[in-house]
Request: fold
Amino acid sequence: MTASGLPRITRTRLYEQVAEQITGWIEANGLQAGDRLPPERELAQRLGVSRATLSQALVALEVIGVVTVRHGDGTLLAEGPGPRRIVEAIRAHAHRLPEIIDTRDALETKIAALAAERRSPEDLARIDEALELMRREVEAGGRGVDGDERFHGAVTVAAHSLLLARLMEEIRDLVRETRIESLSQPGRPADSLAGHRAIADAIRAGDPEAAAAAMHAHVVMVSDVAVLREAT
Reply:
């Protein structure tokens, strides 16, 4: 509310408008789940927007589950937009991001410290496998989403805490939102991989304080996303 008691008018951001345009185009063309959207360059031309704005709109749609992006296979329709309010869904995601990040920081920082104390040779092998997967994904030009998810899962297993693992499972879908948002930022996949290596090195060295610090730094980096910068 404003000082006068009137409701505040919220400006619709350009990428939100484009997200609505995309869903309108999907409905108008009768696309079904599994259908592929045109390449970004072609879709941007059809909608009359820049590639950068289109990419941000597609990330927003991916986060709320309308589309899925597969490296080498393009953008696929995950589900029909239906009657849902696209802009409201996108803003709901943006509003819950800070709380998700706070929760990740609290849980995963402790998990990393415990992993440094409790990891087994098998745990370290799983962590290394996840790092290698993400490296291959990033070097192939992908975002490394699968490797990222597997890495954090391996670190959680290495902590050997059933309750913390359950808590991470509870917020798994919410964490995936932050993962997609973060790894879609320019240069972020390579930076994230470097952060993972720092965490892994501290865990391998058996240094809980260094592992916690590396994980905290990683989560801080993850929190630097365009949707939150624009909201300030």
About this structure: Confidence is low (pLDDT under 50) at residues 1-9. Residues 44 and 51 are 6 Å apart (CA to CA).
